[in-house]
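Morning!

As promised:
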Amino acid sequence: MAFAFNDDSEKQFQWLLKRYPEKRAALLPCFRLAEEQQGFVDQASMEYIATRLELAPAYVNGVFTFYSHYRRPEDGKYIVMVCATLPCGLMGAQQVADCFKDELKLGMGETSSDKKFSLRKVECLGSCTTAPVAQINDDYFENLTPQKIKEIVGALKEDKVPPHISNGPSLEGGRCSYRPMVEAFPEGK
Amino acid sequence: MLIKDYKPVLFDGAYQKDEWTLGRYVAKGGYEAAKKVLAMPRDPNTRNVPAMIDEIKKSSLRGRGGAGFPTGMKWSFVDYKSKKPRYLAVNFDESEPGTCKDRVVGTYNPHMIIEGCLIAMHTVGIENAYIYIRGEFVEVFDHLTRACAEAYKAGYLGRNVLGSGFDFHVQPHRGAGAYICGEETGLLSSLEGDRGYPKVKPPFPAVEGAWRSPTVVNNASTIASLPFIIKTGADAYSMIGAKPGPDGKPVKNDSPGSQVYCLSGHVKKPGNYEHPMCLTMRELVFELGGGMKDDIPLKAIIPGGSSMPLMRYDGKSYTGSNGKEITDSLDMQMSFDELKKAGSLLGSAAVIVMNERVCMVSALYNLVRFYHHESCGQCTPCREGSGWLEKIISKIYHGKGKPDDFERLYNVATQMSGTTICLLADSVAMPVGATITKFKEEFQHICKTGKSMVVEKFGEKAIRL
């Protein structure tokens, strides 16, 4: 399937080009633009980005696969990332992982057949003082307990905003874009 | 020496909703320091402000990223003869296990970072700054982007800022889940749109960094400390954390200013505690942290993020590498130099506390798995070494270790140290070396009997990660 930036992405793309001394530097932000626009980064969008930035598609693919945080087409709608590194491990990350496994009826690293949930173990999420922690899509869930996990998964199954989100409530939607800066300083340079 | 009424600097206003907006920041006296610095003239030949570099040197500010390198000195190493543009890269790729201080500063005080950028940029003679934020920190990226937008609208960023005649731009840049991008040259590679591969030093970034231009790379908390230094003055800042000497006069701390200690693990009150670096481990864990969770005795503490050597606190001594019996003390000062003397490092001041029920073999297995996962794969000793370490520890952990596996662990770890482009190999070798030296009997026991010593002692209550 062909991919092209829509008007909003194109506007941000043109602005981003002015922000870096070299075109290539806009590569990581471009992956985010594609991710915002269609929900994931796939082969078609990578080839499109390669053309726009005058890079070899193989190079773009090589850079993309180095990083683990982009959404891929095969990922579920909700990616549940359970932190498993030492500080969370000490505070019961294994129980949290088991609890998510039971609630979602998924194994670690699996995606449900309806592509609604992906469950994975990740390394340190940088919220060690509130361990155990999990991130679901963009949101952090801290000091997790089995009861909290039950409520979170229950809400997500019905596509409702889950309880216990620890980041601020003023931030729903459009959190990952450069739009505020493009509007404040359209010249870019 | 615990200062009870210490007023936080970096965490001023932390955990308060909407505290991050420009209006609130300016009302607290924000951007006043930047105004003061931007009024200082630049040297036409070197395009920098030498007086300000001296001021930061005088403040004795040390980098808060982990190495504790003096910031003023770093700025003076910039190649000022080069005609190329200079860049500032702010390291916000906070991913060292245990560390979560920058996230709070970025979420609640983004303007403090932008103001710090302005100060650093004018001092060194930079037009463009990039804040490299780890991909997971969506809220930080959102707040910083919107704070930058506010600053552009208010004239704190953009063209001819505050009538100084200079342009200043700050650009938040999102990473995508790679620990190695927290290494300064790895960060620059990633910023340039490449894999986050670290580069060989020298040339150091100050001479040849981003886009082969002189680049200053500073941690986000270091940058956020700058406005306060300008406000209080370098001399006053350098006396923060000073202790009374024998003659009653205050003696300067080796690491002045406040540090954010990220206290995690088995304590009653885990959290981020901002305090001058004059307190001891005992004061941090037992006074600020409220003591051990459920009053289960202490076993070990990692004092500075997972790549630093851990300290043993179960009251037993161990044989050091020099053959001497050592007992670690809880009364050492949590500053860069004092901790180094005690055989560990302050690093990013991420203090991970473990109680006596933790199986050290499993804790080390967890850490080595992390480093194997995060090795960028560029250098063979790190890529293969971390993999082999994980395999050997996994074998030991599952009770299939042989008596000589213990030696093998030690050999692999020592052969990794200092043989790679960046410090990731050392970051895995250091905890492996320290853990197997300090808890030798636990490793020998499981290698010999196939059973965890801690599980034998505590049964169901043992913590095996």
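Residues 78-157 of chain A form a domain with the Glutaredoxin fold (CATH 3.40.30.10).

Hope this helps with the figure draft.
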